[in-house]
Structure formats: C-alpha cells, structure tokens
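Each letter names a residue; the fold follows as tokens. Both lines appear below:
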Amino acid sequence: MGRAVFIILLGGALVGGAFYVGKRWSHPAPVAPTPIAKPAAAEPGAPAPVETRAGKPAVAHPIPANDGVHHELPSLDQSDAYCGRVLRELIGRKDVASFLNLDGFARRFVATVNNLASDNASTALWPVRETPRRFETEARDDRRVISSRNAARYTPFVAFVEGVDSHKALAAYVAMYPLLQRAYEDLGEPTPYFNDRVVAVIDDLLATPDVGAPLPVKHIEADGASPSATAARLYVYDDASLERRTAGQKILLRVGHDHAKRLKAKLAEIRALLVSRPVR
C-alpha cells in the first residue's frame, strides 16, 4: 500500500495505501513485529546476494546507488528537516502537509513498513495522517458488513499514491536510505537489511486474497473497557482466516476491492524497480 502502502511514498507510494487508514478497526495496543516466515524468492536474473560480515544473512536486494549524488546526511535524530525537504521535492509542499507526519519520519516510516507484515501496525507510529471520517458498516442479511460507502474515505489517498512518479519516488527513497537503514537497525530485527524487508513486505501485501464485497465483520469491546455509546467501535473480520492475516493484508482488504487492485498494481510497479535496478 508501498514508495506504502509510498515505500511506499518514498520508495514510491509503495506501501502507501496501507498506511492511510483510520484508527477504529482493531485493538490499538502495538505488538512486536513478526518476521515473515519465508524470504521472497530471488528475481530471475537478479544480482547475486551480497555477503555480509559476522555471519549475518546475505543482502538479497542491494539498494541502488544514489546516481553519483552524495549528500552529507544529518544524524537520525536530526533528520526530519532533511526528509521533509526530499519529500516536498517529490510530491510538493501541499501534499506533504495534507498527508504526512514529518515528526520522526524516518523512524515512523521504517517501523510502519516493518509492522505491516506483522499482527499489528500501530497507528501511533504511522508517518501519514489519519483517514477522515469513521469506519462505516451496514446491515446485510442479518449480518454486519463493511459499508459500500467506506471505500470513499480512501479515494483521495489512493489517487495521490497513483499520481506519484515511481522513478522519482525511488530516487527519493535512495536519497533517504542511509537514514532508513539506521532506523531499521535500531529495531534489532533478524533481517539486517531494510530494503530486503521492504521487498518481503511488498510480497506479503501482493499476496492479499482477492475477496469480493461485502465483507462481514463483528463488533468487539476494547479490553477492559466499559460499554459506552460514545466509545469508538472496534471491529474484526467475521471470517477467522481473514482475521489471522497480517495487518497490511487486512488493511488492503478493508479499503475496498477496486482500491486494493490499484494499490497492488502500484506495489508491483515499485517492487520491479526495487529489485531490477543495477547496483553501482
């Protein structure tokens, strides 16, 4: 939803759509990210993995070089202004202000991408702003389903993601990559190279099943909370097999069939750029 949903925006609108969702879907408590069980298969003709030191796993997808342009990067803790400048050059000041949260952007971006292939992508960490309006459901044949009106909430962001030039987004991603890699290393994940994780997360998102509407859901109470007419309603998928899917896949299911198809097309485009560019 990815360079995203961005990566997404960065990387390209990659994981872009996946990020831009509301806060009223599932339990808000963050959980530790879970590594994807199997790494993505190497692309035909892709360069051989780069061996790392100290017995660490090999790098499967080395990041493309920065086309000979070298900038003196700030420290990770002082990188917001730099990231903001790169992003404004990519998408413009208005869209940055409308869609993104630049406070701690590099850390937010990395944590969110990483968590999309886990059980929970905590909204508190997202680098994009919350979707306007509430998540909507409706009654259908004695069941509660995701409302046909709900997809309209995501239309502006999906159009925004599609409008990002993927090649320029890749250049922005490469420019910021050293900062993203530092932020990822701070997470202490077993896959040591952030770009490898990005490709694996994209593959996980592309594996989201194509499920037609309407999708049945059920209301649950927040843990330890007393019922309240004013409290946000929390929903899970009624189909247990869908509820067990990763956070990113559940988001793609929820944005609507047409939006998911468009976002997955953008993800596939970004993935192709990420793994096919020559390493310099």
